[in-house]
Design a protein that fits this description.
By secondary structure, the protein is mainly alpha-helical. The protein folds into 2 domains: about 80 residues; about 45 residues, no CATH class. The protein contains 3 helices and no strands.
Length: about 140
């Protein structure tokens, strides 16, 4: 398996060029605004309105540049955890199926009377009682 640092996704090609161009244009626009500090109030308001639009686009470009590598690393970490847990989940389901199948006295549930939950008809063999409890637990955890 490749190390996460080697597989971090980054913007490339046209997306990278566009994001960098937007950020450079934003920097140029900020410098332009600094030179316009003594503009009339009407002109300044119009420039500020345009600046807000350009700023939103620039922040989107910055988010694309920096967020892609962060999000990719998080996604790879989640995928690795899911792979580890998938094996445990499969093992748990297999164990539950085995316990259900090896339930002593289970013939499809037809031998269970209404008094069984009160202990009527319970075996006196401790191993059989443990096996029955395990099978019941497996049925509750993994209903079919």
């Amino acid at each position: 398996m490749t190390a996460p640092a080697e597989r971090i996704a980054r913007l490339s090609g046209a997306a990278l060029v566009a994001a960098l161009a937007v950020l450079v244009a934003f920097a140029v626009f900020v410098i332009f605004l600094v030179t316009e500090l003594d503009a009339s109030e009407v002109r300044w308001n119009r420039l500020a309105w345009v600046f807000a639009s350009v700023e939103a686009i620039a922040f989107g470009a910055a988010g694309a540049l920096f967020g892609s590598s962060v999000q990719r690393a998080r996604a790879e970490k989640a995928e690795a955890a899911a792979e580890r847990n998938a094996k445990d989940a499969a093992n748990g389901r297999a164990l539950a199926s085995t316990l259900q199948a090896e339930d002593p006295g289970d013939d499809g549930g037809s031998n269970r009377g209404p008094l069984e939950s009160l202990g009527a008809g319970q075996s006196r063999d401790p191993a059989e009682a443990v096996a029955r409890r395990h099978a019941d637990l497996a049925r509750r955890l993994f209903p079919q």
